[in-house]
Each structure stands twice: as structure tokens, then as C-alpha cells.
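Human: My hope is that you can spare some time for a protein that puzzles me. I am handing you a single protein, as its sequence and its fold in C-alpha cell form. Could you go through the record with me and say what the backbone is doing? Take your time, and here it is.
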Amino acid sequence: MTTTTAPPLLTARDLHVTFPGRRGADPARAVDGVELDIGAGEIVALVGESGCGKTTLARALLGLVRPTSGRVTFAGTPMEYSSRALRAYRKRVQLVLQDPSGSLNPRHTVYEAVAEGLRIHGYAGDERAAVTEALSRAGLRPPERFLLRHPHELSGGQRQRVVIAGALVLEPELLVADEPVASLDASVRGEILALLLRLRTELGLSALVVTHDLGLAWNIADRVAVMYLGRIVETGAVEQVLSAPRHPYTRALLSVLPDSPGEPEVLAGEPPDPSRIPPGCRFHARCPVLASGEAERAGVAGACRTEDPGVPGGGREAEVACHWARARAGA
């Protein structure tokens, strides 16, 4: 785990990504002022419902989407968007996608799939040795058994390990894993999560794990950032956030886990359109605390509807963007 004094490996500051609206509509604010740090050797889980902006944020951190405003910094250097700079950056920061079947060319052997990144980046060393080492690190042992196989000859877990090996072969410092176990059977998910933890221990890898599954976050992450409608609304150490969630949105997400005590808290309606983000707290139209009168009793109902609660910082301190949670903490 990263230390509290070491500078972060990656930072996002006041990051915005907007997309043009359809047929003259206002631009969609997919990422709307995100602050996020990822430390060396740290695993951060980015959680939230589908459509909250998680994947767009991950793509912006990878340099696949250029921010409308704000800044991404890696190892102390602001990201540049020239082809040459992005090529060098993507050797250090690798993406692991959720669907290994879609990530792998069915005509390519495992060897070709893993070697592809080396060839793109002009690797001058022993290609076969690098590929077999990456496969071995990804848990495909002995690697020689897999080199000439095609994706259809592998199980889902083995295909995901090939995808991970394809990222590892470039010796990156950070993995961005977008729903890395969503398409896998339950029996295999634990193996892939254990692999990611082992890679952090053995190689000092950092990881941003994008997921809608708070149970996965609990099992793998050091820190969690909860995202809603383009913005992080709660962040902190995973044990702190998931054991004692302060934001009503985080509480609702946790309440539907299978082993959660009490009744599931079903949120009303759908998240608002990112081109029409409501005033005040962006969650207020669906907030059970506001609907139940608790926010009124705490004296913050008006603020919930009209005042933006701000953006949590990206660091290791536990923070929440919620008028009601802050009122409770100050009571």
C-alpha cells in the first residue's frame, strides 16, 4: 500500500469532459470537476451506477479522451496529447477491459496477442522471453502450453489472464481495469482479484478498478471513490467508506449487497440526464434522506435543493459532498 507521505503517481485536478448535445441540446457533462489521486502501489476502486461517468473518467485518465478542461498528471508530469507523448504514456499506463472475448482477436494465438504491445512499442529485447514471463506472471503456467492456443480454446478466466498478460508485458506502473471480472463466473472472479493483489505485491503496480460492485471494491481496494452523475461524491479508505458510508447514495448502493443488514434501499427514478444536471446537490431529486424529511429536520433541505455541496479532494482524507452528512458530523 502507498504511504501517506509519498506523492501520488497519478492525479486528476478539476477534470471535465463534455460531449456535444444532440439536436441543439446543452452539452453532456460526463465528467464534471473530478479530483482524484492514485498512489504508487495503491488500488483505488471507482464505483457507481452505469452511466455515472466512470468509464469516461477512466478513458480520460488513459489519454483516450481529451479533457475539456482540467489536468491529468502522471509521475509529476502533466499529460501531453501529442501522438509521441501518448505512446510513451500508454506504455506506463495500461488498460484491462471487462470482456476478454472482445479484447482478443480470435485469429491470433496467445503469443501474438501478448506480443502485440511489444511490437507496437518497438521492443528490442527477447520477445519470446518477455511474452512467456508475462503469461507466467498472469498465472498461465507453464506458459509454453498456451503460446499457440487461440482464444476459443481457453476458458473465460484464462482469456482474462491473457488480456492481463498483454498489459503486463510492457511493464506498466498503473493498470486501469474496467469491470475486470464482470463477465466471469463467480468461481473465477476471486482468482482474478487475487491475481491483481499479487501483482501489486510483487511488482508494486498501482490500479484503478472501475466497477459497479461495492463487494468487489471491499475485497480488492485500499481506497474507494463513489461517483454519481459525473462527480465523485464520497471518497476515503475502503473500510471507512463501506463500513460507515456517509453519503445517502453510497448507503443505497451498499444496501442492495446480498449480505447487507436491513432492507434494500431502492432509489426513486433514474439518474438525471448529464446535459441537465439539477441545481444544488445533484443527487437531491433521488435522495431518500431529503424525501423522508431527515434533511429538513437537520436544517439543510433548502441547501440540498439550491447549493452545490462542492467536490471532495482527490487525496487520502475521507470526504463527502453532502450537506446532510456534514450537518450530522458537526452536530
The mean pLDDT is 93. The domain at 10-240 is CATH 3.40.50.300 (Rossmann fold). The first helix runs from residue 54 to 62.
